[in-house]
Design brief:
It is a single chain. The protein is of the alpha+beta class and 255 residues long. The protein has 2 domains: 1-38, no CATH class; 50-254, 3-Layer(aba) Sandwich (QueA-like). The protein has helices at residues 31-37, 78-86, 125-136, 145-156, 207-216, 226-240; strands at 11-16, 22-26, 95-96, 119-123, 142-144, 177-181, 196-200, 251-254. It has a 3-stranded antiparallel β-sheet with strand order 3-4-6. A 3-stranded mixed β-sheet has the order 5-7-8. A two-stranded antiparallel ribbon has the order 1-2. The N and C termini lie far apart (53 Å). One of its GO terms (biological process) is tRNA queuosine(34) biosynthetic process. GO terms for molecular function: S-adenosylmethionine:tRNA ribosyltransferase-isomerase activity.
Length: 255
């Protein structure tokens, strides 16, 4: 039981997962209690945050479910989105419920042995069509963040095996999808849907850092370590220039 105001509620552990995770069932709806007593699920490297909770929320987020913000999107404001549209830049949104494991390090001795966490995602028929239209028209798809990148790449590879939808676009189309995404992207991966990436500066040994290394390394596919070396060199320059890292930090645009 949890002793809460206005009274205790029952809690049952119905499943146990890796890393101390638990799935629980409550004896009554707790949404109101969470809104009243819950705390913002900040990353472990932010020990104190007394500011506006809205600062840790993207301006375009809609469905609830993430345990963390897709931080590359924190750089966008309504005014910036308006300016982009006025300049003819297309814009669409997709859904990924970021899990707590996103902050965890890769602990396997061999990167390929790491078991990536699963996160629920959705790419609607309309959004898939918009992404595919960009390729058909000779444009470029710029993903805002590693979260969007994982969803789009999953929907250009793995998802097509479980969905009968096949667009007309011959060059690696993305397909509509709703379900769990478990694509682990690391150096050697061939990107199929994303042409450019806007992303923050990430934690050491994180799967996010490996994804960005893979993206940077496309320029030299014969050397699997080239992307990591180039990225770490970029990080050193960012440190020397006083760039800020992690969730509320600066971003880098990779074209």
């Amino acid at each position: 039981w949890l002793d809460l105001d206005p009274g205790p509620i029952g809690v049952e552990i119905v499943a146990e997962g890796a890393g101390g995770q638990r799935s629980v069932c409550f004896s009554e709806p707790i949404r109101g209690i969470l809104d009243k007593l819950g705390e913002l699920p900040l990353p472990p490297y932010i020990s104190d945050f007394a500011g506006d909770r809205g600062r840790y929320q993207t301006v375009y987020s809609r469905p609830e479910g993430s345990a963390a913000a897709p931080t590359a999107g924190l750089h966008f404001t309504p005014e910036l989105l308006k300016n982009l549209r006025e300049k003819g830049v297309g814009w669409d949104t997709i859904t990924l419920h970021v899990g707590l494991d996103t902050f965890g390090p890769v602990t396997a001795e061999r990167v390929a042995d790491h078991q990536i966490h699963r996160e629920w995602a959705e790419l609607t028929v309309e959004s898939a069509g918009a992404v595919n239209a960009v390729g058909e028209q000779g444009g470029r798809v710029l993903a805002v963040g590693t979260t969007s990148t994982r969803v789009l790449e999953y929907c250009a590879t793995t998802a097509r095996r479980v969905d009968g939808y096949e667009p007309a676009r011959a060059r690696e189309p993305v397909v509509p999808f709703a379900g769990e995404v478990d694509l682990f992207i690391y150096p050697g991966y061939r990107f199929r849907a994303v042409d450019a990436l806007l992303t923050n500066f990430h934690l050491p040994r994180s799967s996010l850092l490996m994804l960005v290394s893979a993206f940077v390394g496309q320029a030299n596919p014969e050397d699997l370590d080239a992307g990591r070396q180039l990225l770490l060199g970029t990080y050193e320059e960012a440190k020397a220039e006083g760039y800020r890292f992690y969730s509320f930090g600066d971003a880098m645009l990779i074209l």
